[in-house]
TrEMBL record:
<dbReference type="Pfam" id="PF00419">
    <property type="entry name" value="Fimbrial"/>
</dbReference>
<dbReference type="InterPro" id="IPR036937">
    <property type="entry name" value="Adhesion_dom_fimbrial_sf"/>
</dbReference>
<keyword id="KW-0281">Fimbrium</keyword>
<dbReference type="GO" id="GO:0009289">
    <property type="term" value="C:pilus"/>
</dbReference>
<protein>
    <submittedName>
        <fullName>Putative fimbrial-like protein ElfG</fullName>
    </submittedName>
</protein>
<dbReference type="GO" id="GO:0043709">
    <property type="term" value="P:cell adhesion involved in single-species biofilm formation"/>
</dbReference>
<dbReference type="InterPro" id="IPR008966">
    <property type="entry name" value="Adhesion_dom_sf"/>
</dbReference>
<keyword id="KW-0732">Signal</keyword>
<dbReference type="InterPro" id="IPR050263">
    <property type="entry name" value="Bact_Fimbrial_Adh_Pro"/>
</dbReference>
<feature type="domain" description="Fimbrial-type adhesion">
    <location>
        <begin position="205"/>
        <end position="354"/>
    </location>
</feature>
<dbReference type="InterPro" id="IPR000259">
    <property type="entry name" value="Adhesion_dom_fimbrial"/>
</dbReference>
């Protein structure tokens, strides 16, 4: 009987110590948002320079929403009346996004054939962190206590600010639209081991990225063509016949920025037509039109006709500037076949530079 008592005593002592440790353990559990999943919108409206648009360049865009916060409730599965001063944040990248590469500690995902996209979000007490990440301690701005297993009105600051990263895989010009997409889901627990299936917030990325191209003709000056004085008798009785002796040829200069080596230059001509077949520019004298010719002396349609441009300087990598010239001719013509009334005549047209990729 005495031997049996000695064997039982250590077992009871161990059980007592185990219970004491269990009651003093920190609470474990997951957190949920009080008003449904909180959406952090990162709206991009970025314009890249020629340098930014080089293959291999990384471009960082600041998404600063430092005042963003929302309330949540945490469920304490153990330590039901204990306190905690950190939430542990986990971010999971949208599985629909295809990972591509990692550069300078940024994980990139496929956006399109020109750009990959990466994301960092701000964790209070940790700083800016590349997604995805697992159970990082978020300073929640105070101490919260579990009351009967529930802690209400925990304030979360994570996910509201961050950086969008763009990696250029292929040069582009114009505008790329970033469709509205969830890039990362965020989860919170009150210990570093619990796995939560409750999304407290997400990061939605949307917007556009633009590499602008600009062109100007003759440094933005209007192109003036003066036919001087013309005798009314020089106009033919045949409608559409040009006064070829009065034809004037002009060469204008073109300067374009943010160009790539593969880009080509051209132009289109737009004006109000004097006739239904759009062979002449209308003037304020109904009997007078103006014929337009390309550099090969071919008549063009004055409502969208094309003109060839010649490139005289290819872009230099660090400048992206292309120079060129555009040659065309114009001549007065008989719009109706009737002899025009004496007096000045005027017509206007627009030359639009076209960039081919």
């Amino acid at each position: 009987m005495s031997i049996k008592d000695k064997n039982e005593t250590p077992i009871l002592a161990f059980y007592s110590l185990f219970c004491r440790f269990f009651l003093q353990a920190a609470p474990t559990g997951y957190c949920v948002p009080d008003n449904g999943k909180y959406h952090n919108y990162f709206t991009v409206a970025e314009q890249l320079t020629t340098l930014d648009n080089l293959v291999g360049m990384q471009h960082m865009i600041d998404m600063n929403n430092s005042t963003t916060s929302f309330k949540g409730t945490c469920y304490c599965q153990t330590g039901k009346n204990e306190s905690y001063d950190h939430a542990y944040i986990t971010s999971v990248v949208n599985p629909a996004l295809q990972p591509t590469t990692s550069r300078n500690n940024i994980s990139y995902y496929y956006l399109n054939k020109y750009l990959d996209i990466g994301l960092q979000i701000y964790i209070l007490g940790v700083g800016y962190t590349t997604v995805p990440f697992d159970h990082l301690p978020n300073d929640i701005g105070g101490t919260y206590r579990c009351h009967n297993g529930v802690s209400s009105q925990t304030t979360f600051y994570s996910g509201g600010s961050g950086f969008i990263y763009l990696y250029v895989k292929k040069q582009f010009t114009g505008t790329i639209t970033i469709p509205s997409m969830v890039m990362a889901n965020i989860y919170a627990t009150i210990d570093p081991r619990t796995v939560s299936n409750e999304i407290i917030s997400d990061v939605i990325v949307q917007g556009s990225v633009t590499v602008p191209q600009t062109c100007e003709i003759d440094e933005g000056q209007a192109i003036m063509i003066d036919f001087k004085s013309i005798l009314a008798s020089e106009f033919s009785a045949n409608r559409g016949q040009a006064v070829s002796s009065r034809k004037i040829t002009r060469q204008v200069n073109i300067k374009c920025s943010n160009m790539m080596f593969t880009d080509t230059l051209g132009a289109t001509f737009h004006a109000s037509a004097a006739t239904a077949d759009s062979t002449m520019v209308a003037t304020d004298n109904p009997d007078v039109g103006i014929k337009i010719y390309d550099k090969h002396n071919r008549e063009i349609n004055v409502n969208g006709g094309e003109l060839e441009a010649e490139t005289t300087k290819m872009p230099v990598t660090l400048e992206g500037e292309t120079l060129g010239t555009l040659t065309f001719s114009s001549a007065p013509a008989s719009a109706t076949g009737s002899r025009p009334a004496p007096g000045p005549f005027n017509g206007t047209a627009t030359l639009t530079i076209e960039i081919g990729h």
